[in-house]
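Example 3.2
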Amino acid sequence: MSDTHRMTRRMGLRTAVAAAVTVPLMGTLPASAAKPYHRRLDVMTFNLRYASTSEPNSWAVRRPVMRRLLRREAPTLIGTQEGLYQQLLDIHADLGPHYDWIGTGREGGSHDESTAVFYDTRRLAPVEHDTHWLSDTPGVIGSNTWGGALPRIVTRVRFRDRASGGREFYVLNTHFDHVGQYARERSAQFLGEKIAGFDRALPVLVTGDFNATAHDNRAYDILLAAGLVDTWDTATERGKLYATFHGYRPLTPDGDRIDWILATPGTTVHRAAINTFAMNGQFPSDHLPVQATLTLG
């Protein structure tokens, strides 16, 4: 088992994130193991809906649909929300041996929801990662100071892209509060402040379930004011728009888009789509995954 693999798994343990510090990842595959990929990245953001044993729509019922979807799409990078530890292990197994993941639970343990980032190890190599709590005390596990219904987190990873001469880029994956608008706005400000401190030469991708409608919420406006662009808007080609949360009810055309993929300017977005895949009427989650095929600027 590689050092990267062990470190990724340790992120589910309180002791690994007690200080919420940057953790260098040293174990990476040799360049010879990478396939000759095109420079385009296939990015997905997906609220998985936590694994429940309750019917209908239990994880046991949804997992085969999720497996089919993810294997069919084979994204380079997936920002996930709500995944529980065993559920993430299931997804890792279903994606296959060329994927790994990074993330921890929002209470700092392995039995609560996470914002895990999955990635294709043939293409991407993590350089460092950390977890921050969306609060006035981002290094305190489980902290929640902005009136949110629950503690919320952001997972940050700096990747090296094997297909672009080793160029690096940042990924921030998050899940904003579903109740508190003030918490959403402060969370957006926090992300903007983090991005402002990054190496400006490196591109940034932000994925997440923001519980806020694009173009109709101040949290969205704050993130765009921080210098990000919405890949849905800048895509050369777009699929049909649907509300990205459906709650296992009939899909809503032209509905609210609360799951986004944002990027720094200069990113070329070739296509954006909302994936409506289902099997025999069964959806893999109560959200639809949002996808973007892009080339980083």
